[in-house]
Amino acid sequence: MQKARKSYMDSRARRNLGQINTELQDVQRIMVQNIDEVLMRGEALSVLDSKASNLSTMSQKYKKDAKYLNLRSSYAKIAAVIILVILLLLFLRYLIF
């Protein structure tokens, strides 16, 4: 820091001011670039958040539909067993009588 201070305190003030100005412009350019990158990340995070929200909604719908289909399948299996039992009872009734 002392070395930088001494170099700017030199008698060649105009050259030093130009050098300082150039360095400040470089710093400003880098800061603007960093801010732009942060803004892009923010936009990407917003998109990611909306996709996550959509995924959550879709997974809840999938869970609800899966439960409904599972219940419907169980009813179909129970109905098939009941029909087989009724047919077996009818067959035994006509076979015995």
Fold topology:
Elements: H1 2-8, H2 13-96
GO molecular function, one term: SNAP receptor activity
Pfam family, one: Synaptobrevin
Transmembrane segments: 74-96
Which series of helices and strands comes N to C?
HH
Q: SS-based structural class?
A: mainly alpha
Biggest sheet record: none
User: What is the overall silhouette?
Assistant: rod-shaped
Main location: membrane
Keywords: Coiled coil, ER-Golgi transport, Membrane, Protein transport, Transmembrane, Transmembrane helix, Transport
Pfam family, one: Synaptobrevin
GO molecular function, one term: SNAP receptor activity
Description of the molecule:
- The chain is an all-alpha fold and 97 residues long.
- It has two helices and no strands.
- The chain has helices spanning 2-8, 13-96.
- The chain is rod-shaped, with a radius of gyration of 39 Å.
- It holds the Pfam family Synaptobrevin.
- GO terms for molecular function: SNAP receptor activity.
- It is found in: Endomembrane system.
Please give a quick description of this structure.
Keywords: Coiled coil, ER-Golgi transport, Membrane, Protein transport, Transmembrane, Transmembrane helix, Transport. The protein contains 2 helices and no strands.
Name a few traits of the molecule.
rod-shaped, transport, mainly alpha, 97 residues, membrane, Vesicle-trafficking protein SEC22b
